[in-house]
């Protein structure tokens, strides 16, 4: 059964994820992929996400796709029951996933019961195509990427960081540009969308 937990800012939905993990009986090991952050100057959100998992008692296997060969990357994905993919540059992330031929494998593992947790870029690649995110992210960070098709695990397209600095303008422009073309799902930094097979629920962190 498809099980997705998608958000803008993982540290901003810590309690939501804690409740989700309890409901799912999640514990132990998480495969933590910070690769999208390689193309960004600021990566504090990645350290914060690590802290959240550690605080909740998870054992982190931090694994950068860009530093790995294809066989090792595929083996890691195949063996994990809980996959987290961080925020950063969505185009760079997709490029590295395609280089290692991981999209099909991730889809297979999701279908087989693996829980997928995506933050910002990690949430955006759950959609069928990431080109709509070109306003928020720099496409030139992925100079080898020519095909923007992604996981296609959702029929909606997450727009992260709505109303949140420093993304207020770029997020709103994305909404204005694509709202008549795509089923956009805007998320603030305190919201998450939980997908259970064909059910979609947006949740908000309690203040």
UniProtKB/TrEMBL annotation:
CDD domains on file: GAT1_Peptidase_E_like (cd03129)
Record keywords: Hydrolase, Protease, Serine protease
Family, as annotated: Belongs to the peptidase S51 family.
This protein's name: Peptidase S51
């Amino acid at each position: 059964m498809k099980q997705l937990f998608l958000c803008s800012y993982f540290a901003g939905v810590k309690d939501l994820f804690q409740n989700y993990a309890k409901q799912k009986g999640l514990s132990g090991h998480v495969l933590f992929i910070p690769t999208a952050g390689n193309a960004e100057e600021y990566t504090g959100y990645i350290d914060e996400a690590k802290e959240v998992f550690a605080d909740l008692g998870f054992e982190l296997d931090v694994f950068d796709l860009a530093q790995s060969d294809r066989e090792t990357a595929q083996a890691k994905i195949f063996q994990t029951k809980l996959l987290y993919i961080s925020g950063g540059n969505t185009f760079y992330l997709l490029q590295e996933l395609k280089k290692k031929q991981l999209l099909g494998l991730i889809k297979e593992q999701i279908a087989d019961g693996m829980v997928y947790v995506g933050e910002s870029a990690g949430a955006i690649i759950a959609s069928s195509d990431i080109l709509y995110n070109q306003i928020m992210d720099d496409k030139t960070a992925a100079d080898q990427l020519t095909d923007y098709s992604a996981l296609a695990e959702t029929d909606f397209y997450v727009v992260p960081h709505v109303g949140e600095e420093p993304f207020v303008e770029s997020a709103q422009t994305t909404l204005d540009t694509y709202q008549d073309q795509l089923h956009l799902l805007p998320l603030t930094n305190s919201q998450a969308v939980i997908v259970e097979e064909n059910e979609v629920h947006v949740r908000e962190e309690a203040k």
